[in-house]
Amino acid sequence: MRKILDVFNQAASEENSKALFYGYEGTHHTVEKGKYVMTSVGLKEIQSFTNDPFSIKRNEWDKVDSPLAPVEVDLANREKVKVVYDTLTVDPFKIIRSATWAAEWPKYADEFETKRTEAIMGKITMDQYKKYIEGLRSNAALKKAFVELAQSYKEYFGG
User: Among 15, 57, 75, 77, which residue is least crowded by beta carbons within 10 Å?
Assistant: First the structure.
């Protein structure tokens, strides 16, 4: 399992992520004032919209910056978007609430993480893990919390 996770970590490294998005410096891009500027070869060969086989490390400004725009335009666009980061971030647990969940789940959270890890590592079977999950689902207090969370979700999101 650790070897698999190491492969994913290596694939998501900053170096590999830059290569996937921008190619190789000098061939596919140059760096001007800290901005990646695609060369004609890079514009033809590098496709950042393809499905990548692994998760990659994303730059928080990937969806704001443009390889075709001057760095000044990107910086101005970043300033406009910074406001959105603060005002439009939705934390569902600040919206969807259950007093029962808040009181009950901390009693089970550590054990849940342990069981999940044990299942992933093969220390318990998936059948044992499923039995544990069913036990949580049949717990009267947690059932009540699920109903409260569903009602809260409907109140906020409709339907």
Answer: 15
